[in-house]
Design a protein that fits this description.
The structure is a single chain. By secondary structure, the protein is an alpha/beta fold. The protein has helices spanning 43-50, 73-78, 96-103, 105-109, 115-124, 126-130, 141-154, 171-186, 198-204, 222-227, 229-235; strands spanning 4-11, 20-27, 32-36, 56-63, 66-67, 81-84, 159-163, 190-194, 207-212, 215-221. Helix 3 (96-103) packs parallel to helix 7 (141-154) and helix 5 (115-124) runs antiparallel to helix 7. The longest helix is centred in the last third of the chain and has 16 residues, at 171-186. The chain starts with a strand and ends with a helix.
């Protein structure tokens, strides 16, 4: 049974024109999966549909075999999904430490300690430990992206969804972010990624899906996609 499965999902924003025209894809337990495609192809809408931020018109979204279609975002998050949105979504007026605690509110209310989660985040991103008392607005773009990923980890996700984590980052930071995602994946968290840097994303992925005009044009193992002439011509610079 797949960890996540989308079956012929159609979706639109409010009463607007349909954006997704029958998306079907799967993420197996432990996989690192990437969605690639041009701007406006429907990748972000796919992620928002999974998280309940955009309601599906038809089709089904299943997580661990449970139909989550139409459930609220908080309900979906409680099942073990966490989204790192495009633009990071860091709370600028909160400290690094408080940004991290926000994602763990559920566990805090139960009286559970967060030592292990904080240690994991600070081991992955030592700069966050150094700046734990700084406000979110004072961090660089790269540090904010680290904080957004760390915050998602605090929610103890089974599946982490990331929307354009390399956007606006310097090349050396892009590679650092992907290496960190690989470490997180190795620690047992499955990953579904939307990324414009298709070459880098596929290098780290197990499988990829090419989204065109709101539907899956084709999919394959990441290594196969990197040598596919259609993918090379459209997304990998020839």
């Amino acid at each position: 049974m797949p960890l996540l499965e989308l079956r012929d999902v159609h979706a639109a924003y409010a009463d607007e024109v349909e954006v997704l025209h029958g998306i079907s894809l799967m993420v197996e337990q432990g996989q690192f999966v990437t969605l690639i495609g041009a701007n406006g192809a429907g990748k972000t809408t796919t992620m928002k549909s999974i998280m309940g931020q955009v309601r599906s018109r038809s089709g089904a979204i299943l997580f661990e075999g449970i139909d989550i279609t139409g459930r609220s975002t908080p309900e979906i998050a409680r099942l073990g999904l966490a989204l790192v949105p495009e633009g990071r979504g860091v709370f600028p007026g909160l400290s690094v430490y408080d940004n991290l605690r926000v994602a763990a509110t559920r566990w805090i209310r139960r009286g559970e300690r967060l030592d292990a989660e904080l240690q994991q985040v600070f081991e992955l991103f030592p700069v966050l430990a150094e700046r734990r008392n700084q406000y979110g607005w004072s961090l660089s773009g790269g540090q904010q992206q680290m904080l957004a990923i760390g915050r998602a980890l605090m929610a103890r996700p089974k599946l982490m969804l990331l929307d354009e984590p390399s956007l606006g980052l310097a090349p050396n930071l892009v590679e650092q972010v992907f290496e960190t995602l690989e470490r997180i994946n190795d620690q047992g968290v499955s990953i579904l990624l939307v990324e414009q840097n298709a070459f880098m994303a596929l290098e780290f992925s197990d499988r990829g899906y090419v989204i065109e005009r709101g539907a899956v044009a084709f999919s394959d193992d990441a290594d196969a996609l990197m040598t596919d002439q259609r993918v090379k011509a459209a997304y990998l610079g020839g």
